Amino acid sequence: MFGSWSPEELPGLSPKSCKITSEASTQYNCVAWAAKDETNYWWPDPMDVGYWPPGVPRTVTRGAFIKAFGTLGYKKCLDGSLEPHLEKIAIFGTGSSGLEIPTHVALQLESGEWTSKLGPFEDIRHKTIHAVNGPVYGKPICYMSRPRS
Amino acid sequence: MFCMARRRKNPYAVALGRRGGKVGGKARAANMTPKERSESARNAVMARWAMQRGTRVVDSKTENWLKFQRLVKKWKKQRGASSSITETIAMPAYQEIIGMGEKAVPLLLAQLRSEGDEPDQWFWALRAITGENPVKAEERGNFRKMSQAWLAWSEQYVW
Which domain holds residue A23? Predict the structure, then answer.
């Protein structure tokens, strides 16, 4: 079996399209991974279970996610194409256009590949951003970038 | 305010209960037919024998534990690759755990203890059932510290 996830959840992932880069962990999620924080689980839930940057609304909305990554210096950008001087993230969501519910965040690597933490499962490196499209994460709804340090 | 029994039992109440138990056992035996007494004795022997073999007679606590473990397994399957706390806590198995009420609290704490350095998302359920939140604002999202805070909180209660 390839990875801890089920193929029905993430049909675009295969040994050809991605590589597992860590063991499974419940201590951080995709949002934390994209924010380069492996000690906290990032989520804007109303019961204060997840970490969320202070001052950003604790609502599961596209706007709250954009503001959260804004605290890390990210600004909205057009797409996920590789621009060597920029570090990019993609926010995924499900639902109808304009009312999408954020589900996942992926981070672009210098090579142009992407890295994702799959819920409580492993971190992976995937060749294309759309490799993690599917019923669980939906598709990219917003791209953001900041100068690569 | 969460209201489980505080540690320290009342010794007078314990002595009274023990006295009643001794009297009640004899009175119950006197009211049984020889056949019922024989069956009761056989059950007691079976229970002791099962305990010696490492198995337990299924009581309500064990039933709750088995139900809880079944729900934990079911929830982990339902959660799949989701990263969303708000989505995963709304899943039926997780809601069923919350629905167990105070009975689930010691089971959730035991689950956290058994998970060690990889505690899972049992904090929402604990908050929802107990109405308490022993986690400091700066510890939010750090599941290891949150687990430690809840286990420290549980020390003041008898489960």
Answer: 18-147
**Confidence class of residue B13 from pLDDT cuts 50, 70 and 90?**
low
Question: Cα–Cα–Cα angle for B77, B78, B84, nearest 5°?
Answer: 115
Helix (H, G, I), strand (E, B) or coil at A144: strand
B84 inside 8 A of chain A by CB = yes
Nearest to A91 by CA among A57, A110, A113, A68: A68
Domain contains A11: no
A40-56 average pLDDT score? 97
Question: Which residues face A106 on adjacent strands?
Answer: A90
**A131 part of a folded domain:** yes
Domain spans of chain B? 11-52, 60-154
Evaluate whether residue A22 is within a structural domain: yes
Nearest to A9 by CA among B121, B87, B97, B122: B87
Nearest chain A Cα to B82, which residue? A119
Query: Using one digit for the tens of pLDDT, what is the confidence trace for B104-157?
Result: 999 999 999 999 999 999 999 999 999 999 999 999 999 999 999 999 999 988
Tell me A14's DSSP state: -
Written as six digits, the tokens of A135 are 């019923």
- Rounded CA-CA distance A38/A117 in Å is 10
With contact defined as beta carbons under 8 Å apart, do A80 and A129 qualify?
A: yes
Distance from CA of B78 to the nearest CA of A (A): 11
Contact across the interface for A47 and B124, Cβ inside 8 Å? yes
Question: Which of A145, A124, A126, A18 has its CA nearest to residue A79?
Answer: A145
Please give the C-alpha separations between residue A24 and each of A34, A120, B19, B51, B90, in angstroms, as whole numbers.
Answer: 16, 6, 54, 37, 23
Inside any domain, residue A111: yes
Domain count, chain A: 1
